[in-house]
Amino acid sequence: MKLFQSLLVAPAALGLLAPLTANSSELNLAAISRYSDNNVESLSTFSELNPSDWSYQAIKDVVISRDCSNLIPSDSISRFEAAVIINSCLKDFAQITDQERRLIDEFNSELALIKSSIDDEDPRFDGIDASSFSNTTVASFSADFAIGAVDGRSISKTTREANSSGAVIESKTTSKAEALGFDYKYEVALTTSFTGKDSLDVVLAAGVGTLSEFDLSQDGGSSLVVDGISYTFPLGDKTSAFVSQGVEGSALFNTACVYGGPSDTLSSCGNVSSALDEDDLTATAGVTYDFGNGFTASVGYEGQGNTTAGIVTKESLDAYAGQLAYTTDKYGLSVTSAKIETSTTENDTFTALNAYLSPEETGLPSISVGYEWGDDGSAASNADKTSSYFVGLQWDELGQGVFGIAAGTHSPKKENGDALVMYEAFYSYPINDGMTITPLIYTKDMAAGTDDQTGIMVKTSFSF
């Protein structure tokens, strides 16, 4: 469900009404939808822009040159968010640069989506009802290939056989799994608006592989299946809510972390359990409120909506979380707490602190840190405490790409137990506008009696 961490679906994805050309003399940026200049963090997305993408860097340059610094992105953003930033920064300027014209061309479709709330003063939109049903669904596509191997990795397999007397005997064998592997993943993201302020989002995904750190393998394997579906709608000017099946309950959270490493383990920035993403709890919902000036408050829920146990019942398992966050282009802080039911009588509780600092000086990396502590409701009182930590450094402009290093626990440290730490380094290099190559190397400290792991792998990502 990681795909939907960026699904900050608020009144953003508007219906496509008519194509816009990429010519500055025809595109009336001042007439594009009046999105909140201070609410960029809570917009809808499926297809992300990463700090290594040329468009991401170009947008940051435009934000600085056009003096709209309150819109500087601090992490991966969606194409819709990018379009909102472009609109907000350029709407009052008659002349645009070559770089800005290239951005308008790149985000032509997203800017067209915003047109449903343009003033009637633009004659090109006479007769268009912005509140009418959107008869156009916008699609984006992505594909990933990954090749690599993990030294020290092993897999366990359980077999069952009947003996001579008919009794079933179960045996477990462990074998090495260090061979070179090749993974792939393909996604289709669809978004539609019905009122111009809501968003229905669906992701179809297929993927096969064994390189778990790239998280490409899907439940449906090579079959394209629905990975998640979400409907988001505004509740007033500052509040947005969503309901979904398959989207993490923390989709609207604004965790204070700008590290964008590709590994699945450290991508949580130490916020391992507080930011809800329980595999067995797929019916989710959330609400976020934007106080302005960088302050947000969010709550999330996950439940067993696809079982007979139901939602929020005595028999069902449920998870609840809340977050307070303050983020700017230079620094941020968030506090997240969660209660996760593990049985009808027991639950786990977690609290996480996250923070980041992004220096303005050229050549200095951003710093992201996270620490989470928890209580295991099923463990004995002398062994029920858990903790996780994370530290990540990222250079957003190292050569043509993004370089990052990080360290953190790859599984929560149990009370009186050893901390099992993972170290990683990556470099994300954009070959062109739609193709990025990302090599990753990592090591994992494993439990006593188990070989430590070292992984070396490369992922090639395509977006179109």
Q: Helical percent range?
A: under 10%
Number of helices: 4
Q: Can you identify the CATH superfamily of the largest domain?
A: Porin
Gross CATH architecture of the largest domain: Beta Barrel
> On the 0-100 scale, what is the average pLDDT?
81
- Specify the structural class: mainly beta
Can you tell me the CATH class of the largest domain? Mainly Beta
β-strand amount: 35-45%
Please tell me what the overall shape is: globular
Low-confidence spans: 1-46, 117-134
Total domain count: 2
Fold and architecture overview:
With 464 residues, the protein is mostly beta strands. It folds into 2 domains: 124 residues, no CATH class; 326 residues, Beta Barrel (Porin). 8% of the residues lie in helices and 42% in strands. The strands form 3 sheets. A 16-stranded antiparallel barrel has the order 3-6-7-8-9-10-11-12-13-14-15-16-17-19-20-21. Helix 1 runs parallel beside helix 2 and helix 1 packs across helix 3. The N terminus is likely disordered.
